[in-house]
Design a protein that fits this description.
This protein is α+β, with helices and mostly antiparallel strands. It folds into three domains: 66 residues, no CATH class; 96 residues, Helix Hairpins, CATH 1.10.287; 158 residues, 2-Layer Sandwich (Alpha-Beta Plaits), CATH 3.30.70.270. Helix content is 67%, strand content 12%. The chain is built from eleven helices and nine strands. Strands 4-5-3-8-9 form a five-stranded mixed β-sheet, with helices on both faces. The radius of gyration is 30 Å and the shape is elongated.
């Protein structure tokens, strides 16, 4: 171990002791509530109980956890970005080849034009012979490049199909820095199985940027900035065990594991307060950010898609009634 690393570990000794005591507290609470202490459940309860701790304590623990965060999902995101960049490079390469092919065709047409012009030259035989040879050379080169361009096109189309398949399995939404819809639904189905096995409560929260705000914005870049800000605030208020995803259009979702409806409502209130304190300027006009929130319980009596619809219904209720959040009518 290097000297700098030793110094860093000594600085975190107190936090490590806090972490050990807190881990014991989490385990005792799980046993008291009858929650099986599996790694997945422990992770969710670790975040859940941390919400009730003082800010200074939370900061120390989270700082320590950052050291062990291998960022596995982030590695997946980097890989996806590399693949997209590679696809972009292949596309640009093909465009350059296509441009080269067009220029050769243009050169061929120019030679034909010059052949016609040589009819006015006195010593036409030698000039025509030279131009004929040149034309044959260009035609030969043109055939070779045309063949290569065809093969490159096949390679491009094959690569394009592979990249599209990779995108189907991609879990990150690069526009907003959160997960994609397909990953959210996959995690919801997994959570349903865990609930069936262990009997705990989990909740789905849908968050939509206020139409009152977006209707005032016509510039696409500003609308994107608003949605990215909403995503950033969701990540800021969520727990490490939560899944924050872009669902569609202006709507985001948070899968909140080991979270009851009452706890989800409290989380909605915190989110509303945070969003309400966020403002930005469009030209010389100040705009205060706002969102609508809907909540539904992860229920075994319906599919993941039906739970999403239920949470969206709660979102519409919040919008119509002007409440902090709307609860799915089936879950009240």
């Amino acid at each position: 171990m290097k000297q700098g690393e030793q110094h860093h570990v000594r600085n975190l000794t107190g936090s490590t002791n806090d972490l050990e005591k807190y881990a014991q507290e989490v385990l005792k609470e799980m046993i008291r509530e009858g929650i099986p202490p599996t790694p997945s459940n422990f992770d969710a309860y670790f975040d859940k109980l941390l919400d009730g701790k003082p800010a200074a304590f939370r900061k120390r623990i989270l700082k320590l956890l950052e050291l062990e965060d291998g960022g596995e999902d982030n590695h997946h995101g980097v890989l996806e970005q590399y693949l997209k960049d590679a696809f972009g490079n292949v596309k640009k390469f093909l465009q350059h080849i296509n441009l080269l092919y067009k220029n050769l065709r243009h050169l061929e047409h120019m030679l034909e034009k010059r052949l016609l012009e040589t009819e006015a030259v006195a010593d036409k035989d030698s000039l025509m012979t030279l131009l004929d040879v040149l034309k044959k050379d260009v035609q030969t080169m043109n055939k070779i490049i045309k063949k290569e361009a065809g093969e490159l096109k096949e390679r491009y189309e094959s690569t394009s199909e592979l990249v599209l398949e990779v995108q189907d399995y991609a879990i990150h939404e690069e526009r907003y820095g959160v997960y994609k819809k397909n990953y959210l639904l996959t995690k919801m189905r997994k959570e349903e199985k865990l609930i069936a096995e262990f009997g705990h409560e989990s909740t789905l929260m849908m968050v939509r940027a206020s139409d009152k705000i977006l209707s005032q914005i016509t510039r696409p870049k500003v609308r994107h900035l608003i949605l990215r800000t909403v995503a950033r605030l969701l990540l800021k208020t969520s727990r490490r065990s939560d899944v924050v995803a872009h669902y569609e259009d202006e709507t985001f979702a948070i899968l909140m594991r080991h979270t009851s409806l009452d706890s989800a409502k409290q989380a909605a209130m915190r989110l509303k307060d945070l969003v309400g304190n966020t403002n930005f300027f469009v030209g010389d006009r100040e705009v205060v950010l706002d969102v609508d929130i809907g909540i539904a319980r992860i229920s075994l009596d319906r599919s993941s898609e039906q739970t999403v619809i239920c949470a969206l219904h709660g979102l519409d209720i919040a919008y119509q009634q002007g409440d902090v959040c709307g609860i799915c009518p089936h879950d009240k």
